Amino acid sequence: MYKGYVVDQALLKTDPHFGMGCKFCHKGNDKGVSKEVAHKGLVTRPSDNLKTCSMCHKKITDTYAKSLHYTTAGQRNGVMPRFSKEELKTFDDKVFQKSCRSCHASCGGCHVKAPPVGGIGLGLIKQHKFVKKDEGKTCAFCHGGRVYPEYTGDYGEAPDVHYQKGMMCMNCHKKAELHGDGKAYLSKQEVKDRPACKNCHKLGNEAKMTARVAHEKHEGKVSCYGCHASSAYRNCQNCHDGHSEAKPAMILGLSPRDKKTLTTLRLIPTVRNTFAKNGIKMENYDALPNYWDTPAHNIRKRTDRTQSCDSCHVDRKDFLTRESLIKNGSKANEGLIMIPKPIHR
After folding, report:
1. I need a surface site. Which of 94, 156, 253, 309 has the fewest CB within 10 A?
2. Whole-angstrom distance, CA of residue 345 vs CA of residue 342
3. What is the percent of the chain with per-residue pLDDT over 70, rounded to a whole number?
4. What is the mean pLDDT of residues 126-141?
5. 102-116, 158-172, 253-267: which range is least confident on average?
6. What is the dihedral of CA 256, 257, 258, 261, to 10 degrees?
7. Sign of the dihedral through C-alpha 325, 187, 296, 339
8. Residue 21: left (phi > 0), alpha (psi -120 to 50), or beta?
9. Which pTM value belongs to this model?
C-alpha cells in the first residue's frame, strides 16, 4: 500500500505540472526540514478548488464546474420531491452540503489520486503522474460498489460482453460527458448524447431474422437491458437506514420515468427514517418509488429472455410483484408492477 503514496522523483524534472514546485499547488512550507514544519498550511487536495487547475486548463474547469460529477446535483434533485419546502431547506443545510457534496470528483480525483471512499483510498494512481485515464483505478473506485464489478464479473457472474471485447468505461462514456458541456443539468437524464445501445447497434442491421423481429416487436415497450441484462446485480436493502446490506437480484418492472417501458430496476431504499436524525420526516415520501430504472452493466447477447419467450410471458421470472416489494416501502412502488401478457399459441 505504501507505493500509493510514493512520488516518482523523475517526474519533478520531466512533468510540466511540477515546473513551479510542489508548493505551487499544495502550499505548505518548502523550506521546512521536518514533516511538521513542511506540512504547515498543507493543502492535501488542491484541485478541490478548481481555480488551482484553471490557471492552465480554464476551458475545461469552466465546463466542469457545472458538470454532474462536480455538482452532484443529481443526488439532491433525485430525492428532493420527498421533502416539503421546509424539509428541503434543512436537507440542503444539514445533509447535502456536509454529506452528499463531499462525494464530488475533483480534477485530481480522476487524474492523480483516487478519492477515498468510505475512508479507504488507493493512494496515487501512478506515483503522482497526471494520467489521462485509468478506468480501473478511477471510475472503478467510485463506481465499484455496483457498476464496475458487475461489468467485470467480479460479483461471480459472467462479465459484460463489452468488457470481454476489451472495452472500458470511456469507450462509451466520452470525455465531454465527464467534463460537462457548460450547462448545469439537474440529473443525468437531461444530458444529451448519453451512451445508448442504439448508437452502435442499429435496428434493422441484425444478422438473424429472429433477432430483427424480436426487436421490432418490443421496440418502445422493453429497454435493451430488459432482455440483455444477463444476471443478478447488486441491490441495496437497508443501507440508508444506517446499516450495510446488499443482495444480488434481477428485478424487472416499469420504468418510473415513463410508466410504460419494461426495464431492469434497482432497489435504492431511501427508507422513511433515513433523515430522521436531521429532523426530516419526508412528508412526501410516497411521491417517489424505491425502485429505479438501472442500466445494468452485465450485458450478454444471449440470456434466458432472449432465448425463450416463456421466460417472461409464462414463467414471469424476476418480475416485480406485490409479494416481493420491500416492507414499509413507498406506495409508488406498486405502480411499477407489470404483468406480461400471455402468449396465445
Report:
1. 156
2. 9
3. 96
4. 90
5. 102-116
6. -70
7. positive
8. left
9. 0.90
| pLDDT score for 238 | 64
Query: What is the secondary structure of 223-286 as a DSSP string?
Result: -HHHHHB-S-EEEESSGGGT---EEEE-EEEE-TTTSS-EEEEEE----TTTTGGGT---TTGG
* Residue whose C-alpha is closest to residue 230's, from 310, 168, 339, 311: 311
Per-residue pLDDT reduced to its tens digit, 200-236: 999 999 999 999 999 999 999 999 999 999 999 999 8
Distance CA 47, CA 30 (A): 19
* C-alpha cell recorded at residue 257: 420515468
The H or E element that residue 90 is part of is helix 85-90
Q: What is d(CA 41, CA 52) in angstroms, rounded to the nearest whole number?
A: 16
> For residue 43, what is the DSSP state?
-
- Residue 206, SS3 per DSSP: coil
Contact (CB, 8 A) for 160 and 297: yes
3-state SS, residue 152: helix
What is the residue whose three cell numbers read 459484460? 160
Alpha-carbon span 88 to 260, nearest angstrom:
30
User: How far apart (Å, rounded) are the C-alpha atoms in residues 47 and 29?
Assistant: 19
CA distance 301 to 309: 15
What is the pLDDT at residue 329?
Answer: 93
Three-state SS at 170 = helix
Q: Which residues contact 31 (CB under 8 A, 6 or more apart)?
A: none
Q: Which residue bears the cell 463489452?
A: 162
Confirm if 293 and 256 have CB atoms less than 8 A apart: yes
Residue linked to cell 492523480: 112
Task: In whole angstroms, give the CA distance from residue 149 to residue 157.
Answer: 10
182 phi/psi in degrees, rounded to 5: 95, -5
Quote the CA–CA distance of 79 and 271 in Å, as a whole number.
11
Q: Hey, what's the cell of 233?
A: 446485480
Task: Look up residue 105 and give its DSSP letter.
Answer: P
* Per-residue pLDDT at 129: 93
